[in-house]
Design a protein that fits this description.
9 strands, 4-stranded parallel β-sheet, Rossmann fold, about 40% helix, 9 helices, alpha/beta
C-alpha cells in the first residue's frame, strides 16, 4: 500500500496534483476532516489489495491541523508507511494566482489576501516540516508538475527537493528578479554584428556554432557546469527547493540563449532534478 498525504498552500496546485495522481491510478480523497483520517487509513490498509495506492488531500479546510501529529503517530505505531507531498509557492505567486482566478483565499472573508497566506503558512508549518517531498510550483507548468509527480509516485525515482529553472535574459531589460545565480556572458563573441545572424537566435544552429566556436565560450561553459555540479548538492543539503540560474547577454537573444540551452541540456541529461528552460527576452526586438 502506498499512502500519500497531499497538502500545501492554497493556490500552489494541490487540486491539480490530486487530479494527476488520480490519472495514474491513485484512489483520491480530498478535504477529509482530520478526526476521520485514522478511520479512513484503517479502511484503506485493510482493503485486502483492492486499493493499493491512496492519495489523501489535506489542507486548512480539514479542521484542526494540530491533530495531524496524532494521526501520523498512529500510522507509524501501526507500521503503516505514509508519505507527505507539500506544494509550495511564494507569496507573490499565490497573490497573483488569486487575483487572476478571482477566487477568495479560504481564510479571508474580509481583508487582505496576504494576511490569509501568512496565517495559512503558520497552520501548515507542522506538515511542511514533516514533508517527504516539497515542490515549489512558482515557475511550473501543469505538464512539468505532472512529470515530477510521475517520477516520484509512478517511476519511483529518488527524489531531491530541488527544481531548477535556467533562464536566458537581456541586461538591457533588467535582471530577472527571482534569480539565485546570475552569469554575464557579454564577453563572448556577439552574433548580433555578424551578417546573417542578427535576426536569428541562440536556438538556431548557426548562432550556436558561432558562439561555441570561441575558446572562451567553451572554457566558460566547462567551468560553469563544474560550479553548478558543486553548488546543487549543497543547496539540497541547505534545504533549498527552487534554484533559478540566469544567463544574461545584452539583448537576451543570442549568447545567453546559447549558453542557457547548453546548461539545460547538461542538467536534463543527468536527470537528477526537475529542470525548466525559459528564454525570457528572445522575442523582444
Amino acid at each position: 500500500m502506498r499512502f500519500v498525504i497531499v497538502t500545501g498552500m492554497s493556490g500552489a496546485g494541490k487540486r491539480t496534483a490530486m487530479k494527476i495522481l488520480e490519472d495514474v491510478g491513485y484512489f483520491c480523497v480530498d478535504n477529509l476532516p482530520v478526526p476521520l483520517m485514522q478511520k479512513f487509513a484503517d479502511l484503506a490498509f485493510n482493503s485486502m489489495g483492492d486499493i493499493d495506492k491512496v492519495a489523501l488531500g489535506v489542507d486548512i479546510r480539514s479542521g484542526d491541523l494540530s491533530q495531524m501529529d496524532s494521526v501520523l503517530d498512529y500510522l507509524k505505531i501501526n507500521g503503516r508507511t505514509c508519505e507527505i507531498l507539500f506544494l509550495e509557492a511564494s507569496d507573490e505567486t499565490l497573490i497573483k494566482r488569486f487575483k487572476e482566478t478571482r477566487r477568495s483565499h479560504p481564510l479571508v472573508t474580509e481583508g487582505r489576501v496576504d494576511e490569509g497566506i501568512a496565517r495559512e503558512r503558520d497552520m501548515l508549518a507542522i506538515l511542511k516540516k514533516k514533508a517527504d517531498y516539497i515542490l515549489e510550483t512558482d515557475s511550473m507548468l501543469t505538464k512539468e508538475l505532472r512529470s515530477e509527480l510521475e517520477k516520484i509516485f509512478v517511476e519511483n525515482k529518488e527524489f531531491k527537493n530541488l527544481f531548477i529553472n535556467v533562464v536566458s535574459f537581456g541586461f538591457k531589460y533588467g535582471i530577472p528578479t527571482d534569480s539565485d545565480l546570475v552569469f554575464d556572458v557579454r564577453f563572448m563573441p556577439n552574433p548580433f554584428y555578424v551578417e546573417g545572424l542578427k535576426r536569428k537566435t541562440g536556438n538556431d544552429r548557426e548562432v550556436n556554432d558561432f558562439v561555441m566556436n570561441s575558446p572562451q565560450s567553451v572554457e566558460f561553459l566547462k567551468k560553469l557546469n563544474d560550479m553548478i555540479d558543486f553548488l546543487i548538492p549543497n543547496y539540497v543539503l541547505e534545504g533549498k527547493n527552487q534554484l533559478v540560474i540566469s544567463i544574461g547577454c545584452t539583448g537576451g537573444k543570442h549568447r545567453s540563449v546559447t549558453i542557457a540551452n547548453k546548461i539545460y541540456e547538461e542538467l536534463k541529461k543527468k536527470g537528477e532534478y526537475g529542470v525548466k528552460l525559459t528564454h525570457r527576452d528572445i522575442e523582444r526586438e
